[in-house]
Structures are given as structure tokens and as C-alpha cells.
Design goal:
This protein has 496 residues and is of the alpha/beta class. It has 22 helices and 18 strands. The chain is elongated and about 95 Å long. The protein binds adenosine-5'-diphosphate and magnesium ion.
Length: 496
């Protein structure tokens, strides 16, 4: 995160907020001559000057700045509907640029990039810079695959974590290892890895998947094994199970930790004997499919908690493929690469097929700062949303919308963190923590994000005893002082 410093001159709160969007250190004054003093003392990177001071005062500001050799870029900020012609005059006085009004605020990002001498900001590739043909895009996209795994399945990444996982995928796929276990938080690419193994091992056979958490015990059993007519009430005809449907292909048992214990025992028998019977059936059916189990829970801990069978765990855990969380130090470096990859392969906007988009440096900074509790899936969604909203060919900071309620790591349910033990005070504490976290603990920006004053933010940080090292929802509800309950959550409404 950049440590740029901005001086905002004028008393328009919109201009202060604009400055806070780009700087963790904003100094505000409503007097242009005072501003010169501040400029001299703090040597800022940018000055935002309200055009309402009028030509005379602004000209005086530039004259004095010149005399003091204060070579600081100044951007004059206009109000909606003000005279555009004025920009030339401001430029002649020495202004770096002029924003016509709120609709033009978005341009500040590009101005800052130009000032900071990085006109090719973002993660543009040479191909994108030199030409924007579709062929070039595809070519550059392929450079981001650590390995083009198999057919349609590609895993983007160049971090050690992904390279290790890719190596394991190839090794395991090329072996006779069966069953195969893939572990990792939700959204880390377990299903993608399973499909890659399938395509490498059985390119011409079926891939079938079932989520063990989505079905009741009885349904899951008949889904897996099938049943014969009359096996139970409602079984009015024979049903082929997924084990049989997979044939010589692959069956993915997603979220295996959620499989009921008695079904775990039946699965173990299939893995050992390679045969099974339909529910209510008497005939042994041979199972020749590769069985892949995936889990976002720590299976060893599940065994210790007596929720998962030890024998099945040992059978599965022969050479597990581990997918690291995106935020982990070993995989974090992939964030910008994945973002660019999704930018290039996204099909969310079919009407923008030839539009090669890139990300501004500030947008990449925002992506890199986030913790990605929903991992690659969350990142993909953020990029899709940005593409959908973007009207230019470059995605800037304002296009990056990260859901602040997504705070519980490894949670499939975005509101889990809030609903587990819900109270207004707890939710408020959580939102404040998130805002601070999102803004790298810059209180001015966090307050702006939350739509509250800095003073209110300070009071709440103290009240809830929030610190960098406290978890968002740490501390029992009883720890939250009673007074907190009377603070209207609505004050934080802009976050949601
Ligand atoms: N390394 C990667 N490269 C490209 N896309 C990925 C990668 N990892 C995950 N994805 C994408 O992220 C999304 C979530 O991946 P998925 O395999 O469903 O995760 P999981 O099964 O662990 O929840 C999918 O759209 C997938 O294609
Ligand atoms: Mg999955």
C-alpha cells in the first residue's frame, strides 16, 4: 500500500472523501495560504484545491507556490455543472489537472498514476500494450497457466503452492492411486483439480459428482448405490447409483466429511472390495471408477472429534492433494495473476467479447490487500462483477467491490460470521473490524468507508476494544458493553 500524502484545500466534505480514497494521510485546510505552509512542512504528493476559492485566490496560491519552488502537483476540483472553460485557465496557472465535478472524480485515479510515473499501471501484458487483438489476448492468457492441465481444464498460478499441487495432480493422475483425497478451503480449486485428474486419467469416460452435505443420509445412500424397485416406500422403480453411472470414469464425493458415519462404513467396503450392491439388491456390481473425495474440513480433526471414521481416513489419506488458501503466504502472489486470468477468460459479458480489459495499479493493490475468505471463487466473482459494471476498458479501484460481510474464513455461507451468534453490537464490531482490515488499519479511510466520522470510529474502536490482533468476532457477546446495544447500527449502513 502506497504511503502517499494528500493535502485537501477547501471545506467540501466530498473532496475530503475523495482524497481519503487515495491516501492514508490526508491533511485538510480551508485556507489556500495555510495550505502552502502545510505543503512546505509535509511535502505532500498531491494537493486537491477546491475551485470555489475563485481565480484570484487560486492564482495567488500558484504564484506563491512557484516562488517557494513548491513543485507539487495540484489538481483543482470543480463542482457539478461548473464552467469547463476554467480548466484551461487553471492549467495556465500551473494546475496539473482539473476535475469538472463529481462525475469526473473517477479520473483522479488516472491522474495519480500518471503523476507517479507509471502510465502502464496494472498488470497489462506486452501483448495488451502493443495491440489488443483477440489472438494476442489468448496467447497472453496461456502464459499464465502454470500448466495447461488437460483439455479444457487449466489452473492458473505460479506460486510455489500451486506448482506443488500441480505436480501432485500429475503424479497421482498418472498412478493407480484410488481413492484420491483433495483438501482445501472452499473455493481453492478442489473440483477443478478433481476434473483435471479425471481428464488426465479417463479422458473419454464420465465424471460424476455428488455433494455429501446436500442430501439426507437415506437419499445420499440411494444416490450413491442406487436401489431396486420396492427397496423402500416410494422406490417404485430401479435406480442406477452414481457409483455405477461413473463407469470407468470418476466419482467425486464432495465434502466427504459430511457423510453420515454408517454410510462411511459402506463406502469403505466399496473401496476395499471394489464391489457394491444397490439398496435392497442382492447382485454384486463391480466398481471400476476412480473415487475422489474432497474436503474443506480437516479430516484428522474430524476423526479426533469422532465425526469421521479413522479407517476411512487412513484409506483416503494416502497422497492427499493440498490446495492452499489464496491468502496464505505461499499462494498470495497469485492474486493479481488470477485476476488478470479471469479478466481474459470471463464470459460474463458476451457483448464485450473483444474488449481487452486491464486493471489499474490501485485496483490490483485493493485485490492484493484483501484476505479472500472465499478464495479463488470469491476473486472470480469480484472480477466478473467488475467487468459487468465497467464502462471503459480499464478496471479501476471503484470497480472492485468486495463484499464486507464475507469475513468468516472457509465459510460457504457469506453471512455465517454474522449469524452464528447474532447481536447488533457484535455485528457492528465485526463491520468495524472489517473496515479497518480492508483499509489496512487506516482509520480515516475506514471511517469514510463506514460512513462515520473519525471521532465516532475512535470511540467505537475503544468501546469494542478492537485491535489488529483481535479477530473480527472475538470476544464473547457479554464482553460488549451494554451501551453498545443502544448505538444505532444504521450509522454503519453504507457498508452493507
Ligand atoms: N488455479 C485456478 N485457476 C483458475 N481458476 C481457478 C483456480 N482455482 C480455482 N479456480 C476457479 O475458482 C472457482 C472455484 O473453484 P472450485 O474448484 O469449485 O473450488 P472448490 O471445489 O475448492 O470449492 C471455479 O470457478 C474454478 O474454476
Ligand atoms: Mg467445491
Amino acid at each position: 500500500m502506497s504511503s502517499r500524502r494528500i493535502v485537501a484545500v477547501g471545506n467540501d466534505p466530498d473532496v475530503h472523501l475523495l482524497a481519503q480514497q487515495y491516501s492514508e494521510e490526508v491533511l485538510v485546510t480551508d485556507d489556500p495560504l495555510d495550505a502552502l505552509d502545510i505543503v512546505r512542512r509535509v511535502d505532500p504528493d498531491l494537493v486537491l484545491l477546491d475551485h470555489r476559492f475563485g481565480h484570484t485566490q487560486i492564482a495567488e496560491f500558484f504564484r506563491r507556490a512557484d516562488n517557494n519552488h513548491a513543485d507539487i502537483p495540484v489538481v483543482v476540483v470543480g463542482t457539478d455543472g461548473c464552467d469547463i472553460g476554467a480548466s484551461i485557465e487553471f492549467a495556465q496557472m500551473g494546475a496539473r489537472d482539473y476535475l469538472r465535478g463529481r462525475d469526473d472524480y473517477g479520473r483522479l485515479e488516472h491522474i495519480i498514476e500518471a503523476i507517479e510515473g507509471n502510465p502502464q499501471a496494472g498488470v497489462q501484458t506486452a501483448e495488451q500494450t502493443n495491440g489488443t487483438s483477440q489472438a494476442n489476448t489468448k496467447e497472453s492468457a496461456s502464459r499464465f497457466f502454470a500448466e495447461d492441465l488437460a483439455g479444457s481444464v487449466s489452473m492458473a498460478g505460479k506460486s510455489q503452492a500451486v506448482l506443488d499441487a500441480l505436480k501432485m495432480i500429475r503424479l497421482v493422475a498418472g498412478s493407480r492411486c484410488n481413492p484420491i483425497l483433495i483438501v482445501g478451503e472452499t473455493g481453492t480449486g478442489k473440483e477443478l483439480a478433481a476434473k483435471a485428474i479425471h481428464l488426465l486419467r479417463h479422458p473419454n469416460d464420465s465424471f460424476v459428482a455428488v455433494n455429501c452435505a446436500a442430501l439426507t443420509a437415506t437419499l445420499l445412500e440411494s444416490e450413491l448405490f442406487g436401489h431396486v424397485k420396492g427397496a423402500f416406500t416410494g422406490a417404485d422403480r430401479d435406480k442406477t447409483g452414481l457409483l455405477e453411472l461413473a463407469g470407468s470414469g470418476t466419482l467425486l464425493l464432495d465434502e466427504i466429511s459430511e457423510m453420515p458415519m454408517d454410510l462411511q462404513a459402506k463406502l469403505l467396503r466399496v473401496l476395499q472390495e471394489r464391489t457394491f450392491r444397490k439398496v435392497g439388491g442382492v447382485k454384486d456390481i463391480v466398481c471400476s471408477a476412480t473415487i475422489i473425495a474432497s474436503s474443506n474440513r480437516n479430516l484428522k480433526a474430524e476423526v479426533q472429534a469422532n465425526r469421521f471414521r479413522r479407517d476411512l481416513y487412513y484409506r483416503l489419506d494416502v497422497s492427499p492433494i493440498v490446495l492452499a488458501p489464496l491468502r496464505s503466504p505461499e499462494r498470495r502472489a497469485d492474486v493479481s495473476l488470477l485476476a488478470e486470468y479471469f479478466l481474459q477468460v470471463s464470459t460474463i459479458c458476451p457483448e464485450k467479447p473483444n474488449k481487452v480489459m486491464s486493471l489499474t495499479r490501485l485496483a490490483v493493490e485493493a485485490l492484493e490487500k484483501h484476505d479472500w475468505p472465499g478464495n479463488v471463487r470469491e476473486l472470480r466473482n469480484v472480477i466478473d462483477r467488475a467487468i459487468l459494471l465497467e464502462t471503459t476498458d480499464k478496471i479501476g479501484l471503484s470497480g472492485i467491490v468486495i463484499d464486507p460481510t464475507l469475513c468468516a474464513h472457509a465459510s460457504e455461507n457469506p453471512t455465517a460470521g454474522l449469524t452464528k451468534s447474532f447481536s447488533l453490537a457484535k455485528a457492528e464490531r465485526e463491520l468495524i473490524f472489517r473496515a479497518l482490515h480492508e483499509t489496512g488499519w487506516q482509520k480515516t479511510r475506514a471511517a469514510a468507508l463506514l460512513g462515520i466520522t473519525r471521532a465516532t470510529l475512535y470511540a467505537k474502536v475503544k468501546q469494542y476494544n478492537i485491535s489488529k490482533h483481535s479477530h473480527a468476532s472475538a470476544g464473547p457477546t457479554e464482553d460488549v458493553p451494554e451501551a453498545a446495544m443502544s448505538n444505532p447500527i444504521s450509522e454503519l449502513a453504507p457498508v452493507c
